[in-house]
Amino acid sequence: MLKPQAGATREIANLDGIWRFALDHADDTTPWERALRGSLDVAVPASYNDQFVDPAIRNHVGWVWYQRFVDVPRPWVDGRIVLRFDAATHEGRVYVNDTFVGEHIGGYTPFEFDVTDLVEPGARFRLTVGVNNELTEHTVPPGHIFDLPDGRRKQQYHHDFFNYAGLARSVSLLHVPDLRVADVTVVTSIENTAGVVDVALETTGSADIRLVLRDEDDAVVAEGSGTTARLRVPDANLWRAGAAYLYVLEITVLDPAGGEVADVYTVNVGIRTVEVRGTQFLLNGEPFYFTGFGKHEDTAVRGKGHDDAYLVHDFQLLDWIGANSFRTSHYPYAEEVLDYADRHGIIVIDETSAVGFNLGVAGGMTQRNPPPTFSPETLGEKTQATHAQHLRELIARDKNHPSVVMWCIANEPAGQEDGAREYFAPLTDLARELDPTRPLTYTAWLMANAQNDQIADLFDVVGINRYFGWYIDLADLVSAEQKLRADIEAWIERFQRPVFMMEYGADTLAGLHAVDAAPWSEEYQQAYLDMHHRVFDDYPEFVGEHVWNFADFRTGAGLHRVGGNKKGIFTRDRQPKAAAHTLRARWSGLSGRKPTSDGV
Fold it and tell me: Burial, 512: exposed, middle or buried (Cβ in 10 Å; 0-12, 13-18, 19+)?
């Protein structure tokens, strides 16, 4: 789905701001037919949970309602009028005045509806949006809902971050031409010193197409025509980690009847290649070593609400600490994040929202005698179909971002269980069909090891999440190091492909110090990281280290989570812990090169 774009042929009316808000009421079955009850207002974009002081709102399970009036610009008399939602977590239903327009399931990808026949230029309409946060065994991510004796409903989920919900990303009203670009796919390659840009696009009708590729000085470097074309750029400037170079592809749609310009759409193009060869990950044909974090879209009050100021500041911190990459754990991030990564040369591993696919884990705690994860009664064909749709929408949205170098299919699934292979094999086949240019990965949880794992060979890169020294061998880093080495060596020996530490970390309370480096102290976090890095540097097959987590984040209630997950290298308000300086000393100057045990 194309990102909205304002230009000569397209216009955007941003609908962010203050909306009316109400919880769903059993005695009001058609809230979209009138003004919402009560006097609550809510900010968009932002999760609704922490904007209010009422715990009944914060912990609400079910539908909530957003509403505002929208004025359609009078000049929008030709073309089509489209309502666009960058996300509604986890399910959205849209009404224009009294009319149901459509719905979308999936909390982190965009959706839109053509409302041309329902609204009138120069007039006002009532826009009502229902958003549902319920997670069941058939949703992605999954969960369970329990009805309590007092009439309340309780949501249980198996992922270790708070189930923020609402309209956390922008809403807009779009004006687009009838004849327009409907989709674009850009694939780049390198031939000697030349860059090759293959373009395939779709339009809403028969049209003549003109393609122009410009460099950063606005000079034309290649031209083409038609819905498929190959553009060749001599002596191309490649897109690299830490040194982004973006060309601009300008697509002009001409009406074949009179030759007039019907639409103009532009796409940023970074010429680069990614490849897994043997046990190496290659960027532009050269070995690349990932340094960085698993992150979260998580800030105080906003929850998962996108915020441009936090976006800029977080990337400044990534640059300061020397990180070259991050994973969008555990869901697709706002597309503004990927645009920013494109411009600033930060590598992204793009992940679906398939987290919690492990019924032996609930919020980080191992359960006894859990039910099988993959079965008709649990995560079966219906969940798999939903997962596939999430994958389609993720790749359709993010396929043209040069910063995205790998798709992550799932986080910590029960890959050691029977049924896992039958579940994931069709999904990896689908991902390769949708995008044959990018490698695939997933993250193996602590109890899935090289001996019992049933799915790692389906992927190009073996991603592992390991917490030796925290959940196992707490405060015994000597034993933790022994287990870590044995674990890494086993993955390398069995699968003979790149191994990537997608998560490793220790909860740390900022300001807590201990001369004996006791757990939860800043000194323990530093010692924990030092041990891991000493191990990583001994294995040439090891291609990356992503610390869990970039910053402290909010979780659900739990005895082991006091004010949320404290594994951040930065606090939730982005202040560095001592470990930030440890990482900065290690990562600064690496530029994608792998450190070795002799320090070279």
Answer: middle
Backbone φ, ψ for residue 75 (5° rounding)? -70, -10
For the annotated catalytic residues, the residue numbers are: 412, 503
Per-residue model confidence (pLDDT) at position 481: 98
In eight-state DSSP terms, residue 558 is B
CB within 8 Å of 217: residues ≥ 6 apart: none
pLDDT of residue 377: 86
- In the block, residue with structure tokens 């936090």: 310
Give pLDDT, residue 472.
Answer: 96
- Cβ-proximal residues to 119 (8 Å cutoff; 6+ apart), any chain: 70, 72, 81, 96, 125
pLDDT score at 362? 52
Q: How high is the pLDDT of residue 349?
A: 98
CA nearest to 556, candidates 166, 152, 106, 154: 154
pTM, 2 dp: 0.95
pLDDT in tens, 357-403: 998 775 444 456 778 899 988 899 999 999 999 999 999 999 999 99
- pLDDT given at position 363: 41
Q: Which domains does the chain have, with CATH numbers?
A: 11-176 (2.60.120.260), 181-269 (2.60.40.10), 288-587 (3.20.20.80)
DSSP one-letter string for 215-232: -TTS-EEEEEESSEEEEE
Residues of the chain where predicted confidence (pLDDT) is lower than 50: 363-366
The closest of 236, 267, 245, 273 to 343, measured between CA atoms, is 245
The token duo for 340 is: 């920013």
538 within 8 A of 582, measured Cβ to Cβ? no
Q: For residue 317, what is the enclosing H or E element?
A: helix 308-321
Q: What's the pLDDT score for residue 1?
A: 84
Amino acid 365: pLDDT: 46
Q: What is the pLDDT of residue 309?
A: 97
Where is 461: in which H helix or E strand?
strand 461-465
Using CA atoms, how far residue 175 sits from 64, 68, 146, 204, 362, in Å, is 28, 19, 44, 15, 45
Beta-sheet pairing, 280-283 with 286-287: antiparallel
CB 499 within 8 A of CB 441: no
DSSP codes, 35-95 = PPSSS-EEEESS-SGGGSS-HHHHT--SEEEEEEEEEPPTTTTSSEEEEEES--BSEEEEE
Q: 420: part of which helix (H) or strand (E)?
A: helix 420-434
Beta bridge mates, 424: none
CA dihedral angle for residue 397, residue 399, residue 400, residue 406, rounded to 10 degrees: 130
Query: What residues have CB less than 8 Å from 429, skipping those under 6 apart?
Result: none
**Cα distance between the two ends of the chain:** 44
Cβ atoms of 491 and 464 within 8 Å: the answer is: yes
User: CA 140 from chain center: how many Å?
Assistant: 13
Q: Which pLDDT score, from 0 to 100, does residue 597 have?
A: 67
